Amino acid sequence: MGKEELLAKIEENVLQGRRDSEDEGLDEGLEGTPGVVELVQQSLEEGIEAKEILLGALSSGMDKVGEKYESGEYFLPDMLTAAEAVGAAMDILEPRLLDAGMESKGKVLLATVKGDLHDIGKNIVGLMLRGAGYEVLDLGADVDGNKILEKVRDAAPDILGLSALLTTTMLEMKEVIDALESEGLRGDVKVMVGGAPLTPQFAEKIGADAYGKDAIAAVRLADSLA
Ligand code: B12
What we know:
54% of the residues lie in helices and 10% in strands. The protein is an alpha/beta fold. Helix 1 (3-15) packs parallel to helix 3 (50-70). The chain binds cobalamin.
């Protein structure tokens, strides 16, 4: 397979949400044929640069997945499996990208706030941001505000992304933003917030810089904030 053909195959398999050869894919019956992971490995063996694979196949594939999600052709699970396939490929590519000195678009720190265990949405946001070329630090779910502050101080992210899925825990976001302010860190980091119960009005009220309704919006916001 030539380079263009390999990159096109990777993109096709991102759209099918096929991490590896064991996956059936969206259209089913593709089991046994190479998936994203095998194709990425093959591409590297054939001398294609990690950056080219990222930009020419993974990011472009995720862009198309995003468009299909927005147009209603794909549903959330389709986006999730595609994002997971890209995530698995990124695990292989990331060290090589760092070696090659590819500049990341920026550093994003993610956390689901204290008291909230919902992390599926945040994880998708993280995968999409990674696929789009950001360095993502993920503190996980149910993260204490002090821990978030500590990490903002130590890692100096460009953007802090907070997630909450409960009407009770979304109030914790304000605590974090207020604490950033009182610790003199607010000016150092842009804050974007998301999660099903949030609204743009709420985000504005608590002093966030931006609200994103989904992972596609998160990437757009990061591009405008970083
Ligand atoms: C899965 C789930 C769980 C799982 C979570 C597993 C996990 N690892 O995440 C489990 C079973 C643990 C769970 C537990 C509970 N849950 Co629950 N859960 C859900 C459910 C069904 C789906 C949430 C989800 O993953 N959605 C899919 C993701 C992809 O969507 P998303 O999170 O909204 O994320 C997208 C956007 O919001 C945005 N986004 C998200 N974060 C961010 C961050 C940034 C920075 C940006 C820009 C964008 C962004 O992008 C994402 C991708 O598109 C919802 C119902 C629903 N339909 O939403 C209830 C729901 C959120 N849960 C609810 C409740 C009540 C609970 C419990 C209290 C239940 C109980 N009595 O024990 C506990 C609370 C546990 C806790 N302390 O957190 C309620 C909340 C009601 C409310 N008003 O607060 C809901 C709405 C169900 C309901 N209708 O009652 N839950």
